[in-house]
Design goal:
Length: 330
């Protein structure tokens, strides 16, 4: 008989929707039974796992990744593809953001279970907030966690001087969204989603936004459609109800500041750091800027052969970031 721990692990992987782990544990059980001399039982388990895997391949390959894994022709100008390896455990977010993200991942992993009741997972998400707070990296980590390719829509390819072509190009992108289950990311989304009422260029930009709204509405695919912007106020109101969730990103608070630094410098020894002082110095900096200060401090300590990163080294690197950020955002 399978060990109780194996049954628990099987159930856990089933509940979290981690199919790969589920089958891996089932194969471990089969191996265990074979070792015990229960050859017939082991064979039966292996046969069932193989059959289930085959079935899943047929189901999931209907809209397949293969056909645009490397976008060709016109699509190559519109989409760039990555296979991110980053995971949320490497990033620092507020609990409010973490909860929303966990929910997206759970619903996605369990989309078959939801489908049995005619329900669909949330999959059209808008991220907004200041630069460097982790919007782009969230898109990558979602693709990483869900084991899907990340296609970023290239706005330079989409919005050309021949704006009349944009609606046709958007159609190609939405065709790809339907054909291949993946994460599709519209970064700097305000370029498309700008308020129709504010636009000077009434004709073309309005047409682009209208076609985007239409495509979003019609889209019933299994892909995730993510959009990010720094300027939520510029977005057209009609957009918000097309998204299943709208997530706000903010600058890190004191607790997050400590965590970003500890995560980033976990390979280094920190020498008598006064966290309160570090938090005060970092207030107003983004996740990206604090990460950058950590990298600079780490480089300095390596190059000057210091055994650890001192408080001064870290404070200097933070001050430098602060200086640079005030120069770029006076
Ligand atoms: N929450 C976070 N936790 C850890 N590191 C982060 C986080 N957010 C950002 N970073 C670091 O900063 C880099 C830049 O972040 P990212 O590009 O995701 O910001 P953004 O919100 O998309 O900014 P922008 O609005 O300018 O596009 C990341 O690659 C990562 O190294
Ligand atoms: Mg970004």
């Amino acid at each position: 008989m399978a060990k109780a721990e194996q049954i628990i692990e099987l159930l856990k992987s089933h509940i979290s929707g981690d199919e790969r782990r589920f089958y891996a544990i089932a194969m471990q059980v089969a191996a265990h039974e074979a070792q015990q001399g229960h050859e017939k039982l082991a064979q039966e388990l292996k046969r069932l796992v193989d059959k289930a895997k085959d079935k899943r391949t047929v189901l999931t390959s209907a809209p397949s990744v293969v056909n645009i894994a490397h976008p060709k022709g016109e699509l190559a100008n519109l989409l760039s593809v990555e296979y991110p390896e980053i995971r949320f455990s490497q990033l620092t977010f507020s609990s409010a953001i973490k909860e929303r993200i966990d929910r997206i991942i759970l619903e996605q992993r369990q989309h078959h279970a939801l489908a049995e009741y005619g329900l669909r997972p949330r999959r059209k998400i808008l991220f907004y907030g200041p630069p460097g707070t982790g919007k782009t990296v969230t898109a990558a980590a979602l693709a990483g966690e869900l084991n899907l390719p990340l296609f970023t829509i290239r706005l330079d390819g989409l919005i050309t001087k021949y704006m009349g072509e944009t609606a046709g190009k958007l159609r190609l992108v939405f065709d790809a969204i339907r054909a291949t289950r993946a994460v599709y990311f519209f970064d700097e989304f305000d370029a498309i989603g700008g308020d129709r009422a504010l636009s000077n260029d009434v004709g073309e930009m309005r047409r682009i936004l209208n076609s985007f709204l239409q495509f979003m509405e019609q889209d019933n695919s299994e892909s995730l459609i993510l959009a990010a912007t720094n300027h939520v106020k510029l977005l057209d109101n009609a957009l918000f109800r097309r998204f299943d969730d709208v997530i706000e990103y903010r600058l890190p608070d004191a607790e997050q500041i400590d965590k970003i630094i500890q995560n980033k410098l976990h390979n280094f020894k920190l020498d008598r750091i006064n966290w309160k002082e570090i938090e005060n110095a970092s207030a107003g900096l983004s996740h990206a800027e604090i990460t950058r200060a950590c990298i600079e401090a780490a480089k300095q300590s390596i190059l000057s052969d210091m055994p650890s990163i001192s408080k001064k080294l870290l404070l200097d690197a933070i001050a430098e970031r602060k200086h640079n950020s005030t120069v770029s955002n006076p």
